[in-house]
Structures are given as C-alpha cells and as structure tokens.
C-alpha cells in the first residue's frame, strides 16, 4: 500500500456517503409512489447497485439516484396496472409508513402516482420545481400542474 488516494477510492467514498444520506429518503419516496414497502426497498436497492456500477462516471449521485428511483417506480406502477388489467384483483395487505396518519396514507393512495411522486419530492425532500422536473422527466410547467392537482386531490380525499 502506498497510502495514496485513487479516483476509485474517492468514488467509493462518495458512494458510501450517498448511500448513508439518501437510502431511507429514497425508500420513502419509492414507497409513496408504489404503495409497497417491499417494492420500494427493491427499487432503491437496484438503483444503488446501478449507481455503484457507474460510480466513477456519475458526477451528481444524488440527482442521478432520484431520477433512477423515479423511473423504476414509474415502471413498477405501469407493470402493476397491466397485471390488474389481465388478471383478477388480488388482495394486498396494508403497509404502514412511520409518521403518517391513516387518513393521509389513504388519501395518498387515491391520487395518481406521478402526483404522489411530485408531492413527495416537493414537500418531503424539499426539492425545487426544476429538480422535480428533472427527476420525473417532464417540463417544469408539468410539475406545477402535478403539485396543484395533487394537493387539490389530497384535500378532496381528506375532506371525505
């Protein structure tokens, strides 16, 4: 050992720090988007595996990770919609997330997945609209619409 720090060492340190800081938040984001704790953990683990493989090339790991998780969640939701279309509805067990009331969880489950994702990114991760747009792969104007309609839908469902 020479005691010198290599680029690979730096990439490993950045990855480790990114994992420690963002794993739980990304699982919460994926959970709110998918409604499944197991799927959320799987999605985030897969995203971190891909990030690890690309760690030397990724310049902004947090931003890359948010986009990867959002993309995987969208794919997961689309697959579930297709499965439901082609099969009988199977019972799902309720999954709870900490620090949320049952009524808020129920209202969140009733709004569209992209609205849930936008609301989570804005109000839980406190991201600006520009970063939400990048994460969801849509224009900033779409983010404003998702947030506006998502909040309106939440209010409506919470009033019920």
Largest sheet: none
Low-confidence stretches: 89-99
Strand content: under 5%
Q: What is the succession of H and E elements?
A: HHHHHHH
Q: Which word captures the global form? A: globular
Number of strands: 0
Counting helices, strands and paired strands, the structural category is mainly alpha
Radius of gyration: 18 Å
Count the DSSP helices: 7
Q: How far from one another are the termini?
A: 66 Å
Mean of residue pLDDT?
A: 84
Q: Could you estimate the helical fraction of the residues in percent?
A: over 70%
| Quaternary structure of the protein | single chain
Index terms:
160 residues; 74% helix; 7 helices; mainly alpha; globular; single chain
Describe this structure as you would to a colleague.
Helix content is 74%, strand content 0%. With 160 residues, it is mostly helical. Helix 1 crosses helix 5 and helix 2 (37-53) crosses helix 3.
Task: Give the SSE map.
Elements: H1 7-34, H2 37-53, H3 61-86, H4 102-110, H5 113-123, H6 129-136, H7 140-159
Helix pairs in contact: 1-2, 1-3, 1-5, 2-3, 3-6, 4-7, 5-7, 6-7
Produce a short descriptive summary.
The chain is an all-alpha fold and 160 residues long. The chain is 74% helix and 0% strand.
